[in-house]
Automatic annotation (TrEMBL):
Domain of life per record: Bacteria
Record-annotated Hemerythrin-like domain positions: 64-212
Species the sequence originates in: Georgfuchsia toluolica
Protein name per its UniProtKB record: Hemerythrin-like domain-containing protein
Pfam families reported in the protein's UniProt record: Hemerythrin (PF01814)
InterPro entries reported in the protein's UniProt record: Hemerythrin-like
Amino acid sequence: MVQHAAEEQLNAMEFVLHRVDPVNKQGLHGLTAFEGLSPMDPPNAYAPPNIEPAALEDMHPFLRHLAAEHVPFLRELDAFEETILDIRKNGYTRVADAQLRHFLNFFNEHFIAHHRHEEAALFPLLKRRLLETGEHGGGPDPQTPVDLMQDEHVKAIQLAAVILNFLGLAFRFRDQQTRLIILDAALEQGKFLVELLRLHVFREDNVLFPLAHRLIMPAEFEQM
């Protein structure tokens, strides 16, 4: 009965993984800056489209605060990746398990709050300005960089939940081989989460925040 329930949970998580497939997560979102690019010759993810640069020290304190919150999170992300590599090399230990769970707790307590703050205070006005200035994709539902950031927020939360559930699920199986397969799946999703979040932070620091600096007035930041 326990194993049957665990298999049902595994099937449910596989369904979620199809929704956050890392192969598709960088799919084009209709932004005009990416039109005409071939999937056989994709742009460098860390070479954003032509965005007028802005020095962090010139930005409003609201944006500087958001950027500052990225710094400790990137340190935690580096430690999380090191733990994944260590497990691949030396095996799964209690110490490694505690380190993985520490990151997931940090993600849940700090980064989700960071996401929500951005989505509640910054994103609505910035999206409106991007639509007003024509900095969006075409079609009946024009997409902006804000939509991409919100989509990545959701994908990151889903991946973190899948990793946590895989870790809990693995030890519900008595079969050692099954455990190892599920733990390996958890680590693989951890790698995808690291990749997603590093790129996400880069995009916010180098694309989204400069856009906000240019399109939002200081008095409007004061109200956030």
